[in-house]
Records
---
Amino acid sequence: MVIKRIGFSGLAAMISFVILAWALSATVSPALGEEKKKRDLPPRAMFIAPEYTGVVVPEGEDVSMDLTVRNGGRQDEYVNLELTAIPKGWDAQIRSYRFAVKGVHVKSDSTRSLTFKAEPVEGTGPGDYLFSIKAQTEDGKLASSGEVTITVKPKEKEKTAKGVKITTSYPVLRGPTDAKFEFSLEVESELDQDATFSLSAEGPKNWDINLKPAYEEKLISSLSIKANRSETMAVVVKPHPMAQPGQYPISVKVKSEKAEAAADLMVLLTGTYRLEVGTATGMLSLTALQGKEANLSFYVKNSGSATHDMVRFLALKPENWKVAFRPENLQGLKPGDIKQVEVTVVPSEEALVGDYAVSLAVEGERVSRDMELRVTVKASTAWGWIGIGIIVLVIAGLVTLFVRMGRR
């Protein structure tokens, strides 16, 4: 009887031990962890970029544009700024909203926006003027430069004949290729009688150019003006989708039996900013083990007509996960260029088995694209075998114990 009671008590203890061993094998994480994750950013990276590299302005007009200083590295930087080339006949400065700036502090993975301002001296005539801007870290180990070309055009002269003239406050409009440009023109008749003027406009081939009354959507080909009065009309210009960045002249004419006039307009195209991202197969899913790397390749294509100076990659991931990109960024992505990028995803070692979402962002110049990856996490097979081994050992121990106790 004593042996039986001892055997039952021992059996209960052994069963408890088996359950505890199984629980420990399912929940205990590996003792060895990986090193602290490596940050996605490079140790140091800095560049400066003006908002525009070339502008066209009428004679006597000031130029003001944004100037971006970017710190893409891991440490904060003190950046010295200098205008290394200022053409004769111009005063130029780098400014904040209140004062001139010669240096700026930029935190890690941050951007500071300043203003480049250039003012012509009285008497500065038409021509091309090149300004050079230099940025350099305080220790002199990193440097970046940018250039701005200001093209000064002669003041628009009103082309008039006796009795009529055309004026406009904004003869030059600037924007991307896929924008619609609308010029406002005032047509003033100096005739002593009412007159009807025919209208015409000429521009680049395959461009859509229409004339319409101000604040109305209907299209017109003539304009009736009372004696010694004026009327306002609009010239709506839509560039050809494949038009390249550059300057494009538009000529507008008004004509009646007794008078005629013309005006020259200008559209300055800066190009379009577009990006396409995806995978060769169209699949956006991958399988990973806890704490192990899983890789996926995707492409980035510049489908616009303007160059992306810098394309960055960002990731929104679950806590304690790691996401890295190779290369870390793309520089100088020209129109039509396609680049391959590899993303590495490492789930947390404590991640539960199941499906997770990892969002990727591709940021270019004035445009960004997002992708969402589906990551299926599976448990490491090694720990499953370890758990089974523990159970087998426990059962073997129980069998041995019962055999010995039975012999007694």
Note: The radius of gyration is 36 Å.
---
Amino acid sequence: MEELDQHCAVEPGEAFFARLPEQPAVFVVELEAAGAQPYLGRTSSLRRALRQLLDPSAPPAGRSRPRLAGLARSVSYRLTGSSFEQDLLVYRLARRLFPDDWRRRLRLRPPLLLKLDLARPYPRLRLARQVRADGACYLGPFPTRAAAAEAATALAGLFRIRRCHIRIEPDPAFPGCIYGEMKQCLAPCQAAVSQAEYAAAVGALAEFCHTRGASLAAPLEQERALAAGTEDFERAAAVQKRLDRVAAAVQRLPEPVRTLEKLEAVVLQPSAHPAAVEVFRIAHGTIAGPARLDFGGLASAPRSAETLLRQWLEAPAPPTTPEEQTDHLALLARWLYARPRSGELLFREGAPGGGWPYRRIVRACARLLGPAAERPFAAGRSRPESA
């Protein structure tokens, strides 16, 4: 397996365990029996985990972990520097080793997204747990269902998008709903707006989500400045109220929440190798990598860290499927909203001109390698877990 770079045959005796490192790792134990499924696990100490699995004299480690003494043929493993790296590696291995039931084994919770189906004539914002190739605008991932619902309410109210679940058949005689009476809905059910007018409001909402509010806030700020410059203070106060509503809607969007088109970032994690950082690229919600930045080797290399980062991050994003996007968003959300969260996250849009913030990335790497950096598994799992 290309993800696992260390391999060894299982041997009886203490010498076999003494050769194993006491470091975090993801491992696969191959069994002797023909057709037997391998054992996939993760641990904060490879030697301890394999001793519990393979040493017949070791005390039992719990009902959830089998005893494989005398049954194992070989072990493949990869040392890891963070729980984020372990999550991604276990996911990739489980999909390959257990194609029929890997989801059940991983117990991977689907991400919480908001979906704006642009192909429908009168779309609304609704909760989605899966990405599809349907041209819709997806916004997320959110930490909780309540957070997603609050954001949907704020955004729908700002653009007066419908919140009902009914099939829209415009009819002036239709009684409507409370949101239409409160002027918080464009009331397409009552034919108060045309389909083109409703589509324009939906397009403005999609652009608002793409820019996290900048598409609406920037022109309003210009209008406020113009009104103040002409001493039209009543108009300036009215524009300020609209700006306050925009700010309130943006506050409902947690900092990591983006549309999938704009969900481009780098995740920096400690490495199992000294003086190195693992770089993961997030492209449209899909995780690629890791690529290793070995600062020890760069000290004598003709290329700089920024040059290597440019090669990795400016390359075309690898192809992906909606199913992979969904899974990677779930893994990303697990890490994004963990408390405490290890590593560093930097979005592409944070740099001038829309490029990657290379200097900030290098400074973040220095923080991870500094003497005050948090240990990779200080707050992570401390025992092996089978997939």
Note: The longest strand covers residues 286-294.
---
Amino acid sequence: MRARPALTLAVVAALCLGLLAPAATADTKHHKAQVDAAMKKLANDLDETSASLRRAAGALHTAEARLPAARARVARVHGQLIAAQTRDQILGQQLDVAVAEVDRAQAQINATLRKIAKSHRLIGRIARSSYQSGGLGMGELAVVLDSQSPDQFATRIALVQNAMRSQGTVLGGLANSRADLAAERATLDAKRQQLAVMKKQQEAVVARITDLQSQAVDAQHQVETLIAARQSALTAIQQEKAAEEARYAHMRAESARLGKILAARARAARARSYSGGGGSGALAYPVLAPITSPYGMRTNPVTGIYKLHDGTDFGVGCGTPVHAAASGTVIQTALTIGYGNQLVVDHGVVRGVGLATSYNHLERFLVSPGQHVSRGQTIAISGGGEGMYGAGYSTGCHLHFMVYVNGGTVNPMTWL
């Protein structure tokens, strides 16, 4: 009973074609933590990209994160399958030897039985001859006594003695044959038991091979599925790249338009020579939350586009109150293409520069243009969730906070 289906050869061939680079097995919890952290960072970096691009990036990251383990599983199952098949071959050879030994033992027993039967027939003939001659000792004695010369007497007595010894030899041989038969039967039983154990072992190995073949097919299918998912994600990302560049151009245009307005207001405000505290601490935090994405130039981790992230992202959930970073006048509450619901506050001249703040991807406004607001006043509710009204180019809840100095964006952290 040997397992040699064509499926095994197909799987083994596939496993050897380069898709199966073995990977080192990392600690599961540590690996999961790394993957989770990478996914969180990716999500933060893509908060202001399209939902389709974000999904494609997530699919790509997931496929690439899972591929090493999937390939390692394929290699591991492949090794186990080869080991099981080798064990099956060895057991098959041992079974052939064991069957031959059982056959030889049975043949030896048959030969011994024939030998015993032959001894029985010979003893029977001796017994009948003795009976017909009137007793074993008297017949031979009469022959000896009837000798006509000393030489004839000596010859006949030797013949009689040989006949007596032959009977003893036959009886002794019969006893030995019976002893051999008992030993040979014990040996045959032992070999049959060993053969039965080996057959059970091979049945278990064959069942193991069948299971491993199924696992190998499943593991290979998983690898191929992940590779297909990765390719699909790469295709989607490539298609989204041009759209992402267009979206970024929209946001830069909106920022430039607002910058011109703020620059003009800054010039007018400086003419009035208003001045207040400036630099670090001049502005209060609009929300209390961790920073998920800082201000600065960066390369989009998915499209490869090098661009300016023109604000600081705070990781707040949708529906969180947003506070004015300083006192000033609301100059805009509008739904823009890129920033979504955008609220802009002009703080006038602070340490010789025109200072303004922008709060983006809002769920709704709580103040109106022209209204004066105080530092710390609740002015809006945060949003930014995927599909949410006012989210703009945002797919995750957060606050995108911007600081303008004389109409140009700067790092908000230098003023907070």
Note: The chain has two domains: 6-238, 272-414.
---
Amino acid sequence: MKINTLYLPGFSHRLCGRRSRRAVQDLASRAHRLDGLATVVNRFVPAKLFEGWGERRRVYTPWVTFCAFLGQVLERRASCRDAVRRVQAWHLVIGSRCPVDDRSGGYCQVRGRLPVQLLQKAFTQLQQRCAERSRQADRWLGRTVKVIDGSGLSMPDTDANRAVFPYASGQKPGCGFPTGKFVGLFSLASGHLIKFVHDSWHTGEPPMARLLIEGMQAGEILLVDRGFSNWFLIGLLQGKKVDVVMRLHQARKTGTGAVCWDRPQRKAQWDIEQWRELPKQLQLRVVRFRVEAPGFRTEHIAVVTTLLDEKKYPDDAIAQLYLRRWQVELNFRDLKTAMGMDILRTQTPAMIEKELYVHAIALQRRARLAHRDRSAARCAARSIVL
């Protein structure tokens, strides 16, 4: 049945053809071609950003190299030879007479010379655009919420990678892969990646999280799991006037409601100047609730927060906010499973850093799609028992 009149009473607008869906499919098919991908990316990361970086009249300009590299990441398992074929197809589309060699050596060399500072600028510009497009309606009780979480990485077993990212504990030489850690700061509202750090598996995630604090602004809220629950991190955030909602660490025994934590003795890895600036006591609040939902491993959860106003921030609101922390796991699913960041493919630590930045840029493109999946958190929110 064909409906020519839009929004007839009692009829859904979804019955009026598939024009919008076809447009989306056309955009997706264009993005699989290098010329289409460049057109889409140019809307968010302008090509002029890549001008003036040693560019001359050649096949693999910085902009072409970046788009080809991004295409490799977006299409998992794409090889350098696949990237060269995309560049060849692009030159055929634009009618260029410049021959493109079938071999991938030239592309790999130019990709290796692509400055990491250029990728950092592209990532920062795209991150700022995502932040500007965030809506007031997506905030939690009118406040911006950000999430920190970490995950593991592996990479090819080369001498250069092994020198910076050693094997995990228990692995014999030649029987494993170099292993690293990735800790990112995400927006809870949009799912986009704001800032990230990476290091070897020897470095703990809480020290890495301290490097991300500069990505927080006064008045915001940080949402983290109990792996990041420590006195020093809360004290640093309080100094920036940033509130926290984090799961209580299993080693800390405390009551429910208003609590006071004394400053512990300084550890060797804590900077003495920062230590002196921290308060001697932290006024906190502990909220306990139970989750009765199939598929949730934990039933009893204790959350510690600096949001002390129980009228403005009731216990059920704190509980529902913490359960939304699962969204960051979906962001990592996109990074590691959909785009293949769980196993990096480059051969040197310098290229590993560039590959991580390209993955981060690709995630911003997928952030809205990843943010759609909230069914688990919504289901759990209906099953909270205080």
Note: The chain is about 40% helix and 15% strand.
